[in-house]
């Protein structure tokens, strides 16, 4: 019956992986009591024979000698959550042949990062997965060391820099006798990618700072760069959008850095335990043990030193990401304040123009008031209602007997206009009094 993890996992199809070859490393102690290693590729169809050790293209000096360690890597073939780079049957065969820990598949599916070890009388297992992110990768490893056979099996999955990890292992084959070294190499490569990701974020925020002319190291004290800085035209909207993108990536980077730091602490503790174990064993070695095995305690110390060094670098990266976050917030606040100031200036300009319009209207009203009486008098006396006599001054001025018609029509009409204006104004004032948002105007 399939486990819960196997039911959730999206295993690769045989059709997808059948055309791929997978890199491996093997190491063993030959008849000359020296450690020998070889790197190669194994086709998917040859995996069963490779796992059982029945098909080896290049024989060791003494085929009867056990391999001290075997490393196999499956690259990431598909993007997406819960994607596994090999078929279900292949995973079950690897797990059964190498006796990997039962939590191996669960660690492969984990996206939050994990490092843990499990010790029994006969085996020591280590599971490690970095915080899953498109920015820094999905590296995973399952390690099991069988004490009775003195054999270590290592299964890498979805390595972002497989060549770099394999080169690091081959550069120090004697340290591969310690199981924790395989996790330490993975951790160092992962931390290097975290630092490169931090550098990208820093470059983005530096470009924004140059564009806004706000910030930059040493500017508070009048420092200027020797080279002339390029002039960048800043669009407030696009820059704010870019800052939002940076802030999103920064959130991912900060979580990754914190997880990496925690993972480093676990790895240091694991390396300390290994160093203490190997140091204790080195004091009780039999005379027949090789010099290579005697030096194993020194190799565990090197792994411990490397893990502690990378962990301290992880601390500085986390601090740097916090500083980048402060700079992002500073730029965001500056742009928002600039936009608010621009809006305030625009509102002030509108208010000034409104005031000017009000002054102009007031001037027009005053001029109208000044000329209206004279206009009224001129219009009234220019009507046919009045007869002023002849141009020679003969005859008396007379008022038409229909003059009352003018007042009968004009007065009610004036009252009608005034009442209509009052009612209309009252209606508008009542409507504005009920307005609480722009939706009320629809």
Write up this protein.
The structure is a single chain. With 442 residues, the chain is an alpha+beta fold. It has three domains: 1-177, Beta Polymerase, domain 2 (2-Layer Sandwich), CATH 3.30.460; 179-220 and 229-348, Glutathione S-transferase Yfyf (Class Pi), Chain A, domain 2 (Up-down Bundle); 384-426. 55% of the residues lie in helices and 14% in strands. The protein is built from eleven helices and eleven strands. The chain has a seven-stranded mixed β-sheet with strand order 3-2-4-9-8-7-6. It has a two-stranded parallel ribbon with strand order 1-5. Strand 2 (21-29) and strand 3 (35-43) form a beta hairpin. Helix 7 (179-212) packs antiparallel against helix 8, helix 7 packs parallel to helix 10 (296-381) and helix 8 (236-282) runs antiparallel to helix 10 (296-381). The radius of gyration is 43 Å and the shape is rod-shaped. This is Cora-domain-containing protein. It is a multi-pass membrane protein. The chain crosses the membrane at residues 364-383, 403-424. It comes from Trematosphaeria pertusa. It is found in: Membrane.
Number of strands: 11
Give the C-level CATH assignment of the largest domain. Alpha Beta
Tell me the distance between the termini. 63 Å
Strand order of the largest sheet: 3-2-4-9-8-7-6
Give me the Rg, rounded: 43 Å
Largest sheet: 7 strands, mixed
Relative helix content? 55-70%
Structural class: alpha+beta
- Globally, the shape reads rod-shaped
User: From N to C, what is the helix and strand string?
Assistant: HEHEEHEEHHEEEEHHHHHEEH
Give the uncertain stretches in residue-range form: 57-65
Task: From the 3D structure, determine the CATH topology of the largest domain.
Answer: Beta Polymerase, domain 2
Per DSSP, what share of the residues sits in E-state strands of 2 or more residues? 5-15%
What name goes with the CATH superfamily of the largest domain? CorA soluble domain-like
Oligomer: single chain
- Count of runs of 4 or more consecutive helical residues: 11
Quickly give the CATH architecture of the largest domain. 2-Layer Sandwich
Protein name: Cora-domain-containing protein
Keywords: Membrane, Transmembrane, Transmembrane helix
GO molecular function, one term: metal ion transmembrane transporter activity
InterPro entries: CorA_TM1_TM2 (IPR045863)
């Amino acid at each position: 019956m399939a486990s819960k993890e196997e039911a959730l996992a999206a295993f690769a199809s045989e059709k997808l992986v059948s055309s791929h070859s997978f890199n491996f490393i093997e190491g063993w102690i030959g008849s000359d009591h020296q450690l020998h290693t070889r790197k190669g590729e194994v086709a998917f169809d040859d995996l069963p024979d490779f796992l059982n050790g029945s098909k080896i293209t290049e024989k060791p000096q003494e085929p009867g000698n056990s391999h001290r360690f075997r490393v196999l890597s499956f690259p990431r073939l598909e993007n997406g959550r819960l994607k596994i780079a090999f078929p279900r049957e292949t995973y079950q065969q690897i797990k059964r042949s190498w006796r990997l820990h039962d939590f191996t598949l669960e660690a492969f599916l984990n996206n939050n990062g994990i490092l843990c070890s499990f010790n029994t009388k006969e085996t020591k297992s280590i599971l490690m997965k970095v915080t899953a992110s498109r920015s820094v990768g999905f590296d995973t490893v399952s390690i099991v060391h069988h004490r009775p056979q003195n054999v270590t099996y290592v299964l890498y999955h979805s390595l972002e820099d497989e060549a770099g990890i394999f080169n690091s292992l081959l550069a120090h084959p004697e340290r591969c006798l310690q199981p924790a070294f395989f996790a330490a190499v993975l951790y160092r490569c992962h931390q290097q990618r975290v630092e490169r990701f931090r550098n990208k974020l820093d470059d983005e925020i530096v470009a924004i700072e140059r564009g806004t002319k706000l910030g930059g190291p040493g500017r508070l004290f009048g420092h200027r760069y020797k080279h002339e800085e390029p002039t960048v035209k800043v669009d407030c909207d696009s820059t704010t959008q870019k800052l939002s993108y940076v802030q999103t990536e920064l959130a991912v980077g900060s979580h990754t850095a914190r997880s990496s730091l925690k993972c480093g602490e676990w790895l240091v503790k694991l390396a300390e335990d290994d160093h203490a174990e190997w140091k204790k064993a080195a004091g009780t070695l039999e005379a027949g043990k090789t010099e290579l095995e005697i030096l194993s305690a020194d190799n565990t110390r090197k792994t411990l030193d490397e893990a502690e060094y990378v962990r301290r670098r992880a601390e500085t990266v986390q601090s740097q990401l916090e500083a980048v976050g402060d700079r992002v917030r500073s730029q965001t606040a500056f742009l928002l304040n600039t936009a608010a100031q621009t809006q305030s200036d625009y509102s002030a300009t509108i208010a000034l123009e409104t005031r000017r319009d009000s002054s102009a209207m007031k001037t027009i009203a005053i001029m109208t008031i000044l000329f209206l009486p004279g206009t009224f008098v001129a219009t009234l006396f220019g009507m046919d209602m009045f007869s002023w006599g002849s141009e020679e001054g003969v005859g008396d001025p007379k008022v038409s007997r229909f003059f009352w018609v003018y007042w009968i029509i004009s007065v009610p009409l004036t009252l009608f206009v005034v009442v209509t204006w009052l009612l209309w104004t009252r209606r508008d004032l009542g409507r504005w009094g009920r307005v609480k948002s722009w939706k009320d105007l629809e």
